[in-house]
Structure prediction request, 338 residues.
Amino acid sequence: MNVIDLRSDTVTKPTAKMREVIFNAEVGDDIYGEDPSINELEAYSAELFGKEAALFVTSGTQGNTLAILSQTQPGNEVIVESNAHIFWYEGGAACAIGGVQLHPVPGTRGVMTGADVEARIRPKGNVHFPQTALVCLENTHNRAGGTYWSLDQVKEVKDVADKHGLKVHMDGARIFNASVATGTPVKEYAKYVDTVQFCLSKGLGAPVGSVLVGPKETIQKARFWRKRLGGAMRQAGIIASAGLYALQHHIDRLEDDHKLAKKLALGLKNLGLDVDPDSVKTNMVMLRFADCDRLLAKLKEKGILAGLSVPGVIRFVTHFDITEEDIDTTIKTIAELI
Prediction:
């Protein structure tokens, strides 16, 4: 049975060309700084985002954790949106490893305003409070259904952070989706944050890895923390080469994923289901349904996989391996099931 896997954009398989690049990758010992493929990926990433330095890491979670560890002290507080990936899905790493606490702030579809952030910054010099050190933004926002931040919204938060002497980190796991959807170069987003983490293994289609970009001093601290956490690698150019290929060849095609997501949303809406096509900004479709578990089970029997986003909401994610025919089949199958 041909499986249509809409659970996440992390399920993509390397393309034939990417496998060829992996096979032919130049490698060396990255701990000694001698892996040419990793060095090229890091240099390319830093240039792409207009930052001084970059660090190849194993995952988005590790990249976000390193960003927090390298820009805070134990006992500090980090402001995050209340549905942020850092808050929900990273195993409490910021607290368990970094000794910082997260201060969740309710946003609108994943976006906090400058006023939202400023109202939660702790007063300095008061012994009762932890000191706020960092603000984290998520772009695009997972639990909000792939919504993006505009450049003005990011700048507004950055202005507040600068006013209070705070750093800003962007969890840009899917920042290229935001960039393609808004026409905003990632370098423009990066101007208004100190660090950015982006994933190579989601919409870009690489098999593994993320990159953290930022100032040299911060990235050096992150490199130390990566070693301490056991994330330093040896001949990892094999996987870094796939990430570099993805950055050089797979960004523009994200628009195809967005179009397919919109098509799926419109198709489900036409079936009378509770979907808002106007809310589909990138590659995620959220379907509110009374009996999600049953529908997911029935879809699985038909060879279609999706996931539960939040209680009562099914998430469909389009990606490199999903075709227009797959979307037609999914809509037709759901029509038959309901």
